[in-house]
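Late entry, evening session. Most of the bench is empty. Finally got around to the prediction I had been postponing all week. Sequence below, unchanged from the version circulated by S.P.
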Amino acid sequence: MLTKTAPAAAPTPMMAQYLEIKEANPDSLLFYRMGDFYELFFEDAEIASRALGITLTKRGKHLDQDIPMCGVPVHSADDYLQKLIGQGFRVAVCEQLEDPAEAKKRGSKSVVRRAVTRLVTPGTITEEKLLDPGESSAFLAIGRTKAGGELALAWIDISTGQFRIAATAPERLLSDILRVGPREITVAEAVFEDPELRPVFDQLGLAVTPLPASFFDSATAEERLTRFYGVSTLDGFGNFSRAELSAAAGAIAYVERTQISERPVLERPEREDSGATLFIDPATRANLEIERTLSGSRQGSLLKAVDRTVTGGGARLLAERLRSPLTDCDAINERLDSVTFFMAGDERLASDLRDILKSSPDMPRALSRLSLNRGGPRDLVAIRDGLKAAEAVRRLLEAADLPAELSRAAASLSAAPGDVANRLDAALADEVPLMKRDGGFVRAGHHGELDEMRALRDESRQIIARMQTELIEETGVKSLKIKYNNVLGYFIEVTQQNSGALTDTDEAKGRFIHRQTLANAMRFTTTELADLESRIANAADRALAIELEIFDRLQAAVIGSAEAIRGAAQALAVIDVSIGLARLAESEGYCRPKVDGSRSFEIVAGRHPVVEQALRRQAAHPFVANDCDLSPEGDSEQGAIWLLTGPNMGGKSTFLRQNALIAILAQTGSFVPAGSAHIGVVDRLFSRVGASDDLARGRSTFMVEMVETAAILNQASDRSLVILDEIGRGTSTFDGLSIAWATVEYLHEKNRCRTLFATHFHELTALAETLANLHNVTMRVKEWEGDVIFLHEVARGAADRSYGVQVAKLAGLPESVVTRARDVLDQLEAQGRESKASKLVDDLPLFSAEVAKREPAAAAKPSRIEEAVAELTPDEMTPREALDALYRLKGLITKPQ
């Protein structure tokens, strides 16, 4: 007999609502608002419990299984969001849209209406706690046309409103993405699955969100953009290609998808010309450690070494400029003029400006939060104080003779909305709470009714006491009291014998209303007391309502002036960067580079900006400055190649990198660590320094080296700067030498670019005899009593050895290893590198004398064939005699020896 299985219980109304909302957001952790907590259920709860280190509990059952649950308090949700976003999760925030009391009115089984109000992703966060003040927080969208397969990028930083667009191509897609430095990427599903582009996404280590192709449809892109900006046409925005429109539409669609009903105030999209910035390939960006070291740390990077900014906006602008150095000489020199102004100008002016900037809040991020209805009173204060700072800076600059860039900044400061600043200053208190719901942020005296409600709320006892005094005087009953209980509320109480004063006269009868009679007392009220009671009871709610109305009006005024506020903030950032770079140049002894359209690259007494500061902190020896001149000679337009030889630890890698970093700093618009510098604008920078593998993609260290070298040879132009170190060292000696040889020739004859080429293949120095623009230089060393002293100086000439054994000794290799290495090296050098090194192998194991303590093996006796060959005199033999000798040797092979 079969038994019936009881059907699984249907989910509760609340759980049914949760499941429905979760189904619509399958790729996000769902923060489901329940009172003062965001709750997570099922797998979301298990994931969040592990990620956040919070307790996993359970709530009821679903399909006869316990429902895992965990939660976080609403008031501290930002801290938990920060952890989740940092670990790469996306979070859907589901809020209650009504008061629970309203839901109860609809019936006992009704649930509070809820909906997802925003998606929190790595590239769309705006909360102050979740953002690094000095780092941008952009997401990037990639658009592609169906017909030509053209690619474009669009990136938006919701936290500041920045919106940029640029064309790209498959071969430079990775480089351009790294130049932008986004927190996450969104792309059409077909593009994400494209086998040509998918490896790019796999390398990035970023969150990539594939979206339906309709989000990136270039045919409807213009309509999406005009609707978002509330304009009828994009003509005033500039001209965009179909691919650029596709990317822009995808970016706006992602804003709408993640922000739900809210709309940030974004700048109009600004198109960037791909040739306007220095192209830096991915390997170069990593090797030069521009923003982060290879280990991912900011400490030790170029940015950390040169950042002297004092504002978040200035720090972000400097990082952006270092990521994307310019190629336009005029624009570069405008920036240099700004630094020169603060270098050569009034020191007091720079100091006063810097003091103001230090106290200047981050207006763009406050503005963004306000536009998304996530702002609070402190964001309004940030706008107020930021506009005050902008006005103070403007006044300091108004009498100065400013260069072009600073003059434009001053104009933006003049356009700042002073009326908004005044309104904010008049309305906001000096100290305000974080959340607007807490109230207390409106200045006393700003709004009459608000002051009255606050008085009722905060001084009700004093008010009641005053009314009681007035009634005593009016009635003459000194024992009259105004009291309160939960049944009657406020009431007037007198004794029975004194009640006549409140009941006997016609005037009293019309004024005092009987409420209750007790054995020894009578209780009354008046219309004034009833009204006062009502106002006291509602005072707190009314005071908060008035403050929220004031907040909304101030918020609208700020958003209405968003463009001018953002312009003022950008101006402050420009001034901050210029002063910071001037301070850097003064403190570190940097010079202004000459940047022009020539092919010159002449650095006198150049230094590595990061290493120099590190040596100073360590109180080590001072940095040794070196010259570098890759400029064309005579009437030639071809840049030079410096072939750099010398020992390991001699400073080759430092010298290579410092010249690349000097070029980046110069084209960023910064002074440079050198005695003097003349740099013809570099269009592309390639640096192959250091060795690494890419095992995840099946590439050995040597394969990675060859791939990166191929990219350089295929892409470098005659305006490029190429830095190469140890090409060919990852394979056999003759293979490596051949590849290095051919690479140098190709760079000289085909690419014709300015090149620094470091090598241990000393044979390459012979190329200086045949390649007109190749020059041999070396890292100088000094030998003293068997040891080597590294001078870290670059000099003309070529090294004849690498001093590897000496370096091994310095590294601490066992003395036996060093001694044996010297013996092997002496024999190799005596026999010549092309000799039969196999004889040395017969002596293995290398450490037999030290390890086994046995005598060295006796030298092997020459064979009969060797003896016979040694007796031959080829120069004195006739052809017939030579042939006879050959047959005799052949005969010896077949006979026992």
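Two things to note before I forget:
The first helix runs from residue 13 to 24.
The longest strand covers residues 774-784.
Will write this up properly tomorrow.
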